[in-house]
Design goal:
By secondary structure, the chain is mostly helical. The protein is built from six helices and no strands. The protein is elongated. The two termini are 37 Å apart.
């Protein structure tokens, strides 16, 4: 059983040696081991190859257009625009009703408009985003990517 722990310990030391993270004493221990053990030398060579291969990997960055969140289709633009108009109208209505409520008291028509704006604005914004997502789904390169 101590042989397994010794192997794991040696691998950790060898990995630290390749990464240049060992103390002077540990570096000296690894150098002595490498002089005596061809398997350890081979393992260090493999670790260096893997390290260099990992460092040489290049990553493609998506173009700015792929990250753009502007509406991509006419229906999406219509829903997004309508959604923002409704939300802005909702804000104006809420401000008006609050001011009016202080002066005259609540009105039934105002409450209905407020309820319509509360539901209609976010629904239109959601539909605009949903339309875009459905449109690009067949061509989305990042669908299968897991974080």
């Amino acid at each position: 059983m101590s042989n397994h722990h010794e192997t794991v310990f040696d691998e950790a030391l060898l990995s630290g040696y390749v990464d240049g993270e060992l103390t002077q004493a540990d570096r000296q221990r690894v150098r002595l081991r490498l002089e005596e053990d061809p398997e350890a030398r081979q393992q260090v060579d493999e670790m260096r190859e893997i390290r260099e291969a990992a460092r040489s990997v290049g990553w493609m960055s998506p173009s700015d257009e792929e990250w753009n969140e502007a509406p991509r289709s006419a229906p999406s633009r219509v829903f997004r625009g309508a959604g923002w108009l409704i939300v802005c109208g909702w804000l104006v209505t809420v401000a008006f009703l609050v001011l009016k409520g202080f002066v005259l008291g609540p009105e039934t028509l105002g409450e209905k408009l407020l309820a319509l704006a509360v539901v209609g604005g976010p629904l239109a914004l959601f539909l605009s985003v949903l339309i875009d997502r459905i449109k690009v789904l067949p061509n989305d390169r990042y669908t299968g990517v897991k974080k």
